Amino acid sequence: MPYVLLAVAIGAEITATSLLKLSAGFTRLWPSVGVVVGYLLSFLLLSLTLRSVPVSVAYAIWSGAGTAVVAAIGMVVFGEPVSLVKIGGIALIIAGVVALNLGGTHAG
């Protein structure tokens, strides 16, 4: 169940960050409301996840997945330039999250 909460927290964070772009500096009401609600929900669910998942693992997954997906959304939805360097960066984020998780399972 904690990883389901974490997945929903990631989804809320991704949604809030995407809406942040659409809020135009908090000048548009509904995207701005979505930003606030999304981040509140995300942090609430992340805090609940931390009851049973180590912070190093949960935060690595939350921030890494959020960063990678938002970068991809920026390229696909918002028309940001795609480059091998960006794609490589996303791959490195994913590799870092995997490494932290593997390290977390063997730590004593």
UniProtKB/TrEMBL annotation:
<keyword id="KW-1133">Transmembrane helix</keyword>
<feature type="transmembrane region" description="Helical">
    <location>
        <begin position="32"/>
        <end position="50"/>
    </location>
</feature>
<dbReference type="InterPro" id="IPR000390">
    <property type="entry name" value="Small_drug/metabolite_transptr"/>
</dbReference>
<dbReference type="Pfam" id="PF00893">
    <property type="entry name" value="Multi_Drug_Res"/>
</dbReference>
<dbReference type="InterPro" id="IPR037185">
    <property type="entry name" value="EmrE-like"/>
</dbReference>
<comment type="similarity">
    <text>Belongs to the drug/metabolite transporter (DMT) superfamily. Small multidrug resistance (SMR) (TC 2.A.7.1) family.</text>
</comment>
<protein>
    <submittedName>
        <fullName>QacE family quaternary ammonium compound efflux SMR transporter</fullName>
    </submittedName>
</protein>
<feature type="transmembrane region" description="Helical">
    <location>
        <begin position="57"/>
        <end position="78"/>
    </location>
</feature>
<keyword id="KW-0813">Transport</keyword>
<keyword id="KW-0812">Transmembrane</keyword>
<dbReference type="GO" id="GO:0005886">
    <property type="term" value="C:plasma membrane"/>
</dbReference>
<dbReference type="InterPro" id="IPR045324">
    <property type="entry name" value="Small_multidrug_res"/>
</dbReference>
<keyword id="KW-1003">Cell membrane</keyword>
<dbReference type="GO" id="GO:0022857">
    <property type="term" value="F:transmembrane transporter activity"/>
</dbReference>
<keyword id="KW-0472">Membrane</keyword>
<feature type="transmembrane region" description="Helical">
    <location>
        <begin position="84"/>
        <end position="103"/>
    </location>
</feature>
